[in-house]
Amino acid sequence: MLDVINGDRSSWITVLLTVLSFGAVVAWIRSRWLVVTVDGRSMLPTFADGDRVVVRRRTLTDVRRGDVVVLEPPGSARERYWNIKRVTALPGDAVSMDVAGCAAGDRVPPGSLVVLGDNADSADSRQRGFYQGDRLLGVVVRPLGRRA
User: Fold this and answer.
1) Contact in structure between 113 and 92 (CB atoms under 8 Å)
2) Region of residue 101 (phi > 0: left; psi between -120 and 50: alpha; otherwise: beta)
3) CA pair distance 121, 3, nearest whole angstrom
4) DSSP E strands: which ranges in the chain?
5) Cα(64)–Cα(87) distance, integer angstroms
6) Distance (Å, rounded) from C-alpha 114 to C-alpha 50?
7) Within a 10 A sphere around the Cβ of 10, how many other Cβ atoms?
8) 135, 44 Cβ separation under 8 angstroms
9) Which of 89, 102, 114, 117 is disulfide-compatible with 106, CB 3.0–4.6 A?
10) What residues contact residue 141 under an 8 Å CB cut-off, 6+ apart?
11) One-character DSSP codes across 106-132
């Protein structure tokens, strides 16, 4: 450390590269993963109000039926208003349940998906219709527990 204080150039470069590398790793992780706190009861009993989950940023092409996703609801005018729901149908799938604005047997349009909350009282595709894939934040990969 004394060499760094005295101005040893190679030590300064090593410290600078270490700090830059650490910053790059943190930026990479933040660009792909985030922690979201569940607000509400739509995913009971799977997730409760206050539970925290790890979300991996994904696009619609990476989503599978049964995944729990975080996405903006249709018609959302507020910035950063997210829903957490379970995917039940993907683009091209036949709609087998009551989805707002379509009949059973209709196909999910390209770029859209059908999502439901695990709680029967959830506001989801049954009331809001198709959710847009370009409003997808990511897929829940694991719970972290309740917020302290």
Assistant:
1) no
2) left
3) 65
4) 33-37, 51-57, 68-71, 83-89, 112-116, 131-132, 136-146
5) 7
6) 25
7) 9
8) no
9) 102
10) 53, 54, 55, 56
11) PBPPTTEEEEE-SSTT--SHHHH-PEE
The 3-state DSSP class for residue 52 equals strand
Show the tokens assigned to 102: 């379509």
What residue type is 21 in one-letter code? S
Residue 1: per-residue pLDDT: 46
Q: How many CB atoms lie within 10 A of CB 89?
A: 21
Could you give the C-alpha distances from 24 to 11, 29, 32, 55, in angstroms and in order? 20, 9, 13, 20
Structure tokens at 69: 């996703």
- In tens, the pLDDT along 32-62 reads 789 999 999 999 999 999 999 999 999 999 9
C-alpha span between 97 and 60 (Å, rounded): 21
User: For residues 29 and 49, what is the distance between their CA atoms, to the nearest angstrom?
Assistant: 26
The length of the chain is: 148
Reported confidence tier of residue 21, pLDDT bands at 50, 70, 90: confident
